[in-house]
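During the reporting period the student researcher (J.K.) took over the structure-prediction task from the postdoctoral fellow and processed the backlog of single-chain submissions. One of the processed entries is reproduced below for the supervisory committee.
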Amino acid sequence: MQDKGTPRLPKGGRGEFFQESDMSNSLRSCGLMIFRVAAIACLVCGLVLQGEGLARAQEASSPSGQNLGFLIGPVGGVNFTAYTTDKFNIASPPSEIIALNGDGSGASLGINLEFPLASNLHHFFIVEALLDSKAGDFISINGMAAYPDTPVTNMTAFVSESASLLYLLLNVGYKFNFVSGEQLPVGLALQFCMSLGLNVGSHITKTVTYYTTSIGFHDQTFVEPIDGVRAVRMALRPELLYDIPLTSSLLLTPGVGFDYPLTQVDRSRAWIANSAYAGIALHFAVEQ
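J.K. obtained the following structure tokens:
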């Protein structure tokens, strides 16, 4: 028998009562600042390492890798996405409930091509096409609301809200291997790409739970398009890789990176989706 006397948060919900405290807002602002500073630091460190590597590479000359035409293969991974937003109202009732910030994870899958720019296999031109998910759950702020189908008022409402964002990405950039390879690239590498994305799918899913001592709990789920979502996404993608030759023509490359957005998901909500990601690629060598 369900206890109707004590409100409880539905399983899986990420809600709070009424308004957040000033301390909570300050912590989130501080976290956002640290997040952005870390992204910029990652980019700067990458550029410094890349410059040092280029200087060393110019001093070395090797006849290795002269027969390699290009590398091609599938690449896949997982995104760990963090949302930063202004507070915004839910489009469906109860309108008193708002959402703020959030996080989540999603998958990416695509194809990667690497074209060697030097016979010592230090320098590569990168072209990559990805289908990339940046899904996440918002942090909801719960409050009192009228039940939509009855005259009952002053009901406690909980909400669980998530976003689905799917992009088709084209990443173009440069990769530097710190060690020269013979037939294939080998060892630690730094990659830096410019990313251009096209939004191919987006919606918000909300599950609202109403509670009163007389009625108990009642759930309603809404799936709605995201109004005002930008069609195009631009980002910078620094990445740290490690090339592992499996055979003379097969290359395994795990890597980690960061997707730093230059555009917002939705300008009206000041919605930004930052992503750290980890993935792996399997390349096949094609000779000249």
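The committee noted the following: Residues 1-27, 57-63 have pLDDT under 50 and may be disordered.
J.K. will present the remaining backlog at the next meeting.
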